[in-house]
């Protein structure tokens, strides 16, 4: 669909919820860089999104906490290309990947137990360490 960015199978993000701004790119490029606004910045206000459920918003804010502004706005930019159109596509792709990864539920931790041989190795190490410490003890009274 033209007016949407595909995030997951179930989630299509309307471009109307994104705020685009175009500025001049930094770096090399000569006269082209100095006169053409090819750098693309996209801002996505997560709390104000009508497409996301409250659970999805909470997961995004939790997962992307450091990347968000205090208002909950995600900021993505691209200036890789000399073309504004390519930079816009690149920034939208970056945004989709960030959101897709953040929306994945965390894998549950599977508790593991040490193997029998690992337990035996630990016990052997402890016994050797204990014996070493006992040898360092005070000399018996007969030596004094």
Report what the structure shows.
There is one protein chain. With 144 residues, the chain is an alpha+beta fold. It has a domain at 4-103: Double Stranded RNA Binding Domain (2-Layer Sandwich), CATH 3.30.160.20. It is built from four helices and five strands, in the order βββαβαβαα. The strands form two sheets. The protein has a three-stranded antiparallel beta sheet with strand order 3-4-5, covered by helices on one side. Strand 1 (4-6) and strand 2 form a beta hairpin. The radius of gyration is 29 Å and the shape is elongated. The mean pLDDT is 88.
Give the helix/strand layout.
Elements: E1 4-6, E2 12-14, E3 18-23, H1 31-35, E4 39-45, H2 54-63, E5 73-78, H3 84-103, H4 116-135
Antiparallel strand pairs: 1-2, 3-4, 4-5
Provide keyphrases for this structure:
144 residues; alpha+beta; Double Stranded RNA Binding Domain; 3-stranded antiparallel sheet; two-stranded antiparallel sheet; 5 strands
Specify the number of helices: 4
Residue stretches low in confidence (pLDDT < 50, at least 5 long) are none
Measured on Cα atoms, how large is the radius of gyration? Answer: 29 Å
Number of strands: 5
Quickly give the CATH architecture of the domain at 4-103. 2-Layer Sandwich
Average pLDDT = 88
Report the span from N to C terminus.
92 Å
Q: Major β-sheet, in short?
A: 3 strands, antiparallel
Give the strand order, joined by hyphens, for the main sheet.
3-4-5
What overall form do the CA principal axes indicate? elongated
CATH class membership of the domain at 4-103? Alpha Beta
* Helix/sheet category: alpha+beta
Q: Predict the CATH topology of the domain at 4-103.
A: Double Stranded RNA Binding Domain
Strand content: 15-25%
Order of helix and strand elements from N to C terminus: EEEHEHEHH
State the helicity in percent bands: 25-40%
């Amino acid at each position: 669909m033209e007016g949407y960015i595909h995030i997951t199978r179930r989630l299509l993000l309307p471009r109307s919820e994104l705020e685009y701004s175009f500025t001049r790119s930094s770096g090399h490029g000569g006269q082209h860089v100095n006169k053409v606004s090819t750098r693309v910045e996209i801002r996505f206000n997560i709390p104000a999104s009508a497409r996301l459920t409250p659970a999805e918003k909470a997961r995004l804010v939790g997962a992307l906490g450091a990347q968000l502004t205090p208002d909950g706005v995600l900021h993505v930019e691209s200036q890789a290309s000399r073309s504004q159109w390519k930079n816009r596509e690149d920034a939208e792709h970056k945004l989709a990947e960030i959101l897709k990864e953040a929306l994945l539920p965390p894998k549950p931790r599977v508790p593991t137990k040490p193997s029998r041989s690992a337990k035996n190795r630990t016990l052997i190490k402890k016994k050797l360490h204990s014996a070493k410490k006992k040898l360092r003890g005070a000399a018996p009274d007969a030596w004094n």
